[in-house]
Amino acid sequence: MLTNSYDQAEFGDPKDGAQLNEVEPPRAIFKDTKTGRFLEGNGGRPKGALSKSTIAKQIIMDAAPELVRQAIELAKGNASMMSTLLAIALPTNRSQLEPVAIPGIEHCSSLEDKTNAIMNAVTNGIISPDVGLQMVSGLEKSEQAHRLRLLSEQVADLQRKVLDGRSLVKRIN
Amino acid sequence: MAESIDALQRQVNKLTQILQAQQSGLPNQLTVFVKGTQASSSEEINRIILERLSLFGLKDLSDAQDAGCDIKVIALPWLTDREIGHESV
Q1: CA–CA separation, B28 and A118 (whole Å)
Q2: Rounded Cα gap, residues A76 and A52, in angstroms
Q3: Which pLDDT score, from 0 to 100, does residue A4 have?
């Protein structure tokens, strides 16, 4: 079953530029309803045609200066809007690369001792709480990786022993 | 990572049990005799096998096979209650 011819206005005309108010209501596309393929002479979307979302973005970008001016006006006396605008305007704080020295940590062997040393450093104001938290989290991950390696070795060792142990199993014939 | 640790720990526990079973004299063939009436219930046969395996600290049929022990079940209708579960050695 055949339907109407391809509607170029649905995607915007590449020659005329993107004008949403000039877009006509979409008509059915000239294609086979069974296979969904365009029929001969209808190549589908023309080269360089703009998608609906691109057209919408262009319209918004054109209106952006006016929108920002209106947002600033609205923000006067509106804490939520002020917060939104400031979040866009101000750069996000990122962690800085700086050396951290924890007194006595080099003598700690257990995870508990190392955590205590970090907590002492936080308590004494040597490092900030968020840095302390990151360090403890890193220690936990390191400990987990260590445990994973030990367990893997243990499993491999046990598997070898079990295979060897099959010769120990009492023979009954 | 925590899931991997748990999985590996379970594997260690299982392999340790198997190793202990091997060292505690697990036979390479475990024949379990069941009465004719018991043989009609797979759950009952399973219970009898697991009871025998528990003597070696094993909780699973696959653990016994991993340890190198084959399990045979023989149904004997004339077997008395006292003889049920005895191995064939």
Answers
A1: 55
A2: 34
A3: 42
Please say whether the beta carbons of B5 and A144 come within 8 A.
Answer: yes
Q: Which amino acid is at A67?
A: L
Q: Determine, for residues B25 and A170 on separate chains, whether the beta-carbon distance falls below 8 Å.
A: yes
Q: How many domains does chain B have?
A: 1
Write down the pLDDT at residue A83.
Answer: 86
The residue segments making up the domain with residue B56 are 2-83
- Contacts of residue B69 in chain A, CB cutoff 8 Å? 169
Judge: A172–B27 Cβ closer than 8 Å, yes or no. Answer: yes
Q: Which of A115-119, A143-147, B33-37 has the lowest mean pLDDT?
A: B33-37
Contacts of A159 in chain B (CB under 8 A): 15
